Amino acid sequence: MKKILIIADDLSGAADCAIGFTGASHRVVVMLEAERDQMDPHADTTAVDTDTRRLSPAQAAARTAAAFRALGGPGQRLYKKIDSTLRGNWAAEVAALQPVAGLAIVAPAFPATGRALRGARVLVHGTPLEQTPTWQLENAGRDANVATLLNEAGLATDVLDGESLRDDPAALAARIAASAAAGTQALIVDTGSEQALRTLARVTLASDVPLFWVGSGGLAREISALTRRPAVEAAPDESPAADPHADLPVLALVGSLSPVSERQCAMLRERTGIEQLIVPPDVLRAGPAHADWAALRAQIGATLAARADLLVRIGRDDAFDPAEGAQLSTSLAALVEPHFARIGGLIATGGETARAMLSAARIPSLHLQAEVEAGVAVGRPLDPNRAHRPGIVTKAGAFGTDHALYAAWLRLRNQTEPDVVPH
Fold this sequence. Notes:
Keywords: ATP-binding, Carbohydrate metabolism, Kinase, Nucleotide-binding, Transferase. The protein is an alpha/beta fold and 423 residues long. The protein has two domains: 3-226, Rossmann fold, CATH 3.40.50.10840; 237-412, Molybdenum Cofactor Biosythetic Enzyme, Chain A, CATH 3.40.980. The chain has helices spanning 11-23, 57-71, 90-101, 133-139, 146-152, 169-181, 194-206, 217-226, 259-272, 281-286, 293-305, 325-336, 351-360, 404-412, and strands spanning 3-8, 28-31, 45-49, 76-81, 103-107, 115-118, 121-124, 127-128, 157-161, 186-190, 211-215, 250-254, 275-279, 310-314, 345-349, 365-373, 376-381, 391-395. It has a 15-stranded mixed beta sheet with strand order 9-10-5-11-4-1-3-2-16-17-18-15-12-14-13, sandwiched between helices. The protein has a three-stranded antiparallel beta sheet with strand order 6-7-8, with no helix packed on it. The longest helix is centred in the N-terminal third of the chain and has 15 residues, at 57-71. The protein is globular. It starts with a strand and ends in an 11-residue tail after the last helix.
């Protein structure tokens, strides 16, 4: 099996897409920058975060194409990871990759998290995407039809009912070949079940048509299951039993304001008694110039120095704008960074939050090791010579069950509880 290159537009997305390959005994590395000299030569699967979600479509397309030129090559298959709720500039990015990567097989469904595709429209637990709070927060008034978005990006599209062909791989293969021959550039495949995605993965892995995959963690999970490698024993420094930071506190950073994150934070606090600090957005906008900056930084330091676990969240005010998420996350990371060496584990909710914290802590790449629950990844800094290598959990903001943050905390604490069912 060829190696896999995953290009994602945010860090939590890169990790939640790549983590399925860890479960299939791949060596998986997630990178913050598309730099070939930083690639792990032993990795079977490499995921890179291009950090393009907040850019203009043209900027995002250019950066995505540059990432493929930098990291792509013979012996690789390309997976363009997109958000299962269609956030970001994914259509422009697919359009930039299509001329060099072939037919785009577009299947954003992720059944394990309630995402399906029907008639080229995303359903979230049965609700049309346009009606969900996630879409309304950032895209109110915009059409969420996958075909429309790809057409607007300049791609010739076709829609295929993959669900009805889930038991007929030969027919599915013939339809894909026919679409490619007819000049289709992006083939949208309606799916709503793991079985349909599994058939699509099997057919496209064996296909002679030049193609690349466009999807969320759902299709990636099925591809990983079909490319399982022999199990490799973990190195001693990757074993929880050998963790030198096990007695240090866990820090949870939550930059997402989604209702999903709100419920997850509530359960984490209820089950663990973790201390909570909500940082007002005006403090983060002003940075060190704000009168409360020093006091908040000192409060974070004192809590962690006492080896108490801490949940730090970005608050919300009337001036809040979703477009300022990266700025607020960067400021939050700067607030925490002086105390980062005191933690034994990090839980980062929201791709911008995770990237900002890892960048501030000078961690350019993660070696993914396990999955807390569907799409929630845990890893460690890749550099084995780094003295401080805390366990790091990443999770998209509007993602996961209500147990997700609590389950991540249990994982970093090397604890289990009967009411938390491992994935």
